[in-house]
Automatic annotation (TrEMBL):
Gene3D superfamilies: Cytochrome P450 (1.10.630.10). Belongs to the cytochrome P450 family. One of its GO terms (cellular component) is endoplasmic reticulum. Its cofactor is heme. Heme binds at C309. It is a single-pass membrane protein. PANTHER family: ENT-KAURENE OXIDASE, CHLOROPLASTIC. GO terms for biological process: ent-kaurene oxidation to kaurenoic acid; gibberellin biosynthetic process. This is Ent-kaurene oxidase. Coiled coil: none annotated.
Length: 364
């Protein structure tokens, strides 16, 4: 299997050298090919590399693996993931929290309209409004429901573990969801033709009704916008290190126990062997017959296998419906000079500079 392996040593990335026996002798292994990373490191060979290897900083930030995403795949991980799916992120939980998402979208639309009415020619800081509303819905879900649930049902958890689990769900709701939505609106505001195509689809499906979650299955281009943004601007570019605790094989190479593996999600999503012109933002690629419209995991943005992201359903519901409403309500155009502001900062691909756009209300 053709895939790229890179070794990080002394702050440099070097090509891996393998001997005639195809043995990998390195400390850190970087996987940048989507087929190898997805099918082997995340699924097929999962039992051999299910342990997280965290830096000292991440150990401190997560209180030594107390979060679902950073914990080892063990009884603790299974238990806390079950808790978060039951009360916050699972399908039934999403039904219970529906009204909060609807209120959030109305609040965002109202604040955007207020800005346009007061300062129609002034570019708006999209993040400032959207992030505050996302944080609000996260606090409502966690403080009103999840905290009580953990205190009453999760008897074996320590106060420190409960604190980290609550904080994790707030991060999932308010950070990565924001990152994906902001990048999607940036791409749409930059490309008027694609924005017009999405608006036309919304008009054909919704007419004079507001975009709701019930409409999502009828709008394939909106789904394509979502998945293409996850591919090109993946909110989590690199998966936290995994530790190989027993000898295994990857793509025909022998990988000894003790190796650390980093899966480069960004590199996989930019793999030219899998994606045509990967550097371009082309939602149309996900309209091809080979992509199942109902498949939520078309890219590696949500991971794969047993550690697939627990918040994927909520992310899709919030991001897709928000994008739909934002394009339905307004025509978006980037502020002059905004197109060059693509630098990122932090563990996620959060834009270094918040997106500023000029909005024009639509007559629909």
């Amino acid at each position: 299997m053709d895939f790229i392996i890179e070794l990080m040593s002394n702050r440099r990335v070097l090509n891996a050298y393998c001997n005639e026996q195809r043995v990998i002798t390195m400390k850190v292994l970087f996987l940048t090919n989507s087929i190898c990373s997805d099918e082997l490191a995340m699924v097929t060979r999962y039992s051999s590399m299910s342990t997280r290897k965290l830096s000292k900083a991440l150990k401190i930030l997560t209180s030594d693996k107390c979060m679902v995403a950073t914990s080892d795949y063990n009884d603790f991980h299974k238990m806390v993931k079950r808790h978060v799916l039951t009360n916050v992120l699972g399908a039934n939980a999403q039904k219970r929290h529906r009204s909060q998402r609807d209120t959030m979208r109305e609040n965002v639309a109202s604040r955007l309209h207020a800005h346009v009415n007061n300062s129609p020619q002034e570019a708006i800081n999209f993040r400032e409004i959207f992030e505050s509303e996302l944080f609000g819905i996260a606090l409502k879900q966690e403080l009103n429901c999840y905290t009580d649930y953990l205190l009453s049902e999760a008897k074996t958890l320590t106060p420190e573990q409960i604190t980290m689990l609550i904080w994790e769900t707030i991060i999932q709701t308010a950070d990565t969801t924001l990152v994906t939505t902001e990048w999607a609106m940036y791409e749409l505001a930059k490309d008027q033709k694609k924005q017009d195509r999405l608006f036309e689809e919304i008009q054909n499906v919704c007419g004079t009704d507001k975009v709701t979650e019930e409409h999502l299955s009828q709008m394939p281009y909106l789904g394509a916008v979502f998945h293409e943004t996850l591919r090109k601007d993946s909110p989590v570019p690199i998966v936290p290190l995994r530790y190989v605790h027993e000898d295994t094989q990857l793509g025909g190479y022998y990988v000894p126990a003790g190796t650390e593996i980093a899966i480069n999600i960004y590199g996989c999503n930019m793999d030219k062997n899998r994606w045509e012109s990967p550097e371009e933002w082309k939602p149309e690629r996900f309209l091809e017959p080979k992509h199942d419209p109902m498949d939520l995991y078309k890219t590696m943005a949500f991971g794969a296998g047993k550690r697939v992201c627990a918040g994927s359903l909520q992310a899709m519901l919030i991001v897709c419906t928000s994008i739909g409403r934002l394009v339905q309500e307004f025509e978006w155009k980037l502020r002059q000079g905004e197109e060059e502001n693509v630098a990122t900062v932090g563990l996620t691909t959060r834009k270094l500079h918040p997106m500023h756009a000029i909005l024009k209300p639509r007559n629909w």
